């Protein structure tokens, strides 16, 4: 059974032991986005094998059929007509897709708790050869041009007393920075890793997180780039038996940010939570694509992304794909994307997709909603003496806060909410909009 829908609002109208264990035979291959838009919303509690779509045109293919390769030439050069690239402004991403070799780099600032190791490996290292394959030309170029990878290793049973923080800052220049990072977390360990991107750069980065059996890992990726930055990336998580993986993506800065996040399960009992916050201002393009591949029994996934847009030509894209394979009995999954459009001239595209190939699941569903303020909330606040402008800002802050809190680091949460509030402070005309009861 396959359900998908499109929602669009346009208001102008070293050792590689762990890797080899996680990539044992039977681990599902990656897949990708739906091949055509369809209906408005969908959910499923049980399904029978086979494929079905509802509302809108019939898909021309399955998300599970997406091609992967480490060879950039195997993908060809995108034109913008391909499903994978049809939402992306090709002119802006072209400097990355051209794939020119470069020695440019980001400036790293690290904070490593005791016991955590930061090393590097060459391109021919078995660790890299065992990673999930790139899902598009840009990811393949990144793997090829990086010439190796930085590797963060958290030993088994380690209980880190503070986050691993990698500050990655751009220093300007037109050359593309190519980067690959692998995070290995041993069995029964508990760790939080923060990737904090800032400065001015053209950056294409790959991140692979290998979560050992019964480990608990949180990955936080902050895109707080300077204006003019372009960032493309593929994030892969492989979740071990009875392990827990949580990813929180926060995208605020840059001219264009396009991130592809993939999750695979290497054993039963795994859990993955994917959270995201994005706020696009005038002319910014922020695109988040997710793929969750349930290929083994008794695993769980939960996806919640929230976005806000303001200003002329602000654009966000969210694609969420979940596949439940025949062997993935006992799966429980849900995904939700919500977008809040603050001004005319902004556009949000949202495409959740769910493909179910077994009826023996706990539950599965998806939903997407895009709209303006909740007038009922606003009226409630205004009826208690709060002016309309302040009321609207409170609603937006509350909209984001329940996702940001999943980071679990107070100082970082406060910083990010401060950035969001500064954006809201620059939002004109809220006090001119009438508030009426719903």
Task: Provide the descriptors you would attach to this structure in a database record.
7 helices, 438 residues, alpha/beta, 19-stranded mixed beta sheet
Summed up, the helix count is: 7
What shape does the CA trace take?
globular
N-to-C span:
37 Å
**Secondary structure: helix percent:** 10-25%
Strand share of the residues? 35-45%
Number of strands: 19
- Judged by helices, strands and strand pairing, the structural class is alpha/beta
Secondary-structure element series: EEHEHEEHHEEEEEEEEEEEEEEHHH
Q: Any idea what the radius of gyration is?
A: 21 Å
Q: How many structural domains are formed by the residues?
A: 2
Low-confidence stretches: 6-62
Helices and strands in order:
Blueprint: E1 2-4, E2 7-10, H1 17-22, E3 42-44, H2 90-97, E4 107-111, E5 117-122, H3 126-129, H4 137-146, E6 148-154, E7 164-185, E8 190-211, E9 216-223, E10 230-239, E11 244-251, E12 256-265, E13 271-280, E14 285-294, E15 300-309, E16 315-324, E17 332-341, E18 347-356, E19 363-371, H5 375-382, H6 388-404, H7 410-425
Parallel strand pairs: 6-7, 7-8, 8-9, 8-10, 9-11, 10-12, 11-13, 12-14, 13-15, 14-16, 15-17, 16-18, 17-19
Antiparallel strand pairs: 1-18, 2-18, 3-19, 4-7, 5-6
């Amino acid at each position: 059974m396959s359900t998908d829908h499109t929602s669009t609002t346009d208001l102008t109208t070293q050792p590689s032991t762990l890797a080899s264990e996680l990539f044992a035979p039977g681990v599902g291959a990656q897949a990708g986005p739906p091949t055509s838009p369809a209906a408005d919303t969908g959910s499923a509690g049980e399904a029978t094998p086979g494929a079905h779509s509802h509302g809108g045109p019939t898909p021309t293919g399955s998300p599970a059929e997406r091609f992967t390769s480490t060879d950039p030439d195997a993908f060809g050069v995108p034109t913008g007509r391909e499903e994978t690239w049809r939402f992306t402004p090709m002119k802006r991403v072209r400097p990355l897709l051209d794939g020119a070799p470069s020695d440019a780099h980001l400036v790293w600032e690290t904070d490593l708790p005791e016991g955590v190791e930061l090393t590097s490996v060459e391109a021919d290292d078995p660790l890299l050869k065992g990673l999930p394959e790139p899902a598009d030309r840009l990811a393949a170029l990144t793997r090829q041009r990086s010439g190796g990878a930085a590797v963060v290793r958290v030993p088994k049973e380690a209980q880190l007393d503070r986050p691993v923080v990698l500050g990655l800052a751009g220093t300007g220049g037109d050359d593309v920075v190519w980067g690959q990072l692998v995070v290995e977390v041993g069995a029964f360990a508990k760790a939080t890793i923060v990737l904090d991107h800032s400065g001015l750069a053209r950056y294409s980065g790959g991140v692979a997180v290998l979560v050992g059996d019964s480990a608990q890992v949180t990955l936080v990726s902050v895109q707080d780039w300077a204006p003019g930055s372009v960032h493309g990336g593929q994030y892969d998580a492989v979740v071990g038996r009875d392990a827990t993986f949580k990813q929180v993506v926060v995208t605020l800065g840059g001219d264009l940010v396009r991130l592809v996040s993939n999750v695979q399960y290497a054993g039963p009992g795994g859990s993955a939570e994917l959270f995201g916050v994005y706020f696009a201002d005038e002319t910014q393009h922020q695109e988040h694509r997710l793929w969750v591949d349930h290929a083994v029994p008794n695993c769980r996934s939960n996806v919640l992304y929230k976005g806000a847009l303001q200003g002329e030509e602000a654009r966000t894209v969210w694609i969420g794909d979940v596949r439940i394979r025949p062997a993935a009995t006992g799966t429980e999954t849900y995904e939700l994307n919500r977008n809040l459009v603050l001004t005319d001239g902004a556009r949000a595209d949202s495409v959740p997709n769910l493909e179910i190939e077994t009826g023996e699941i706990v539950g599965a569903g998806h939903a997407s909603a895009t709209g303006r303020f909740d007038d009922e909330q606003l009226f409630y606040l205004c009826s208690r003496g709060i002016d309309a402008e302040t009321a609207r800002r409170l609603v937006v802050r509350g909209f984001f806060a329940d996702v940001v809190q999943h980071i679990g680091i107070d100082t970082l949460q406060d910083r990010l909410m401060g950035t969001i509030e500064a954006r809201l402070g620059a939002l004109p005309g809220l006090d001119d909009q009438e508030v009426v009861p719903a």
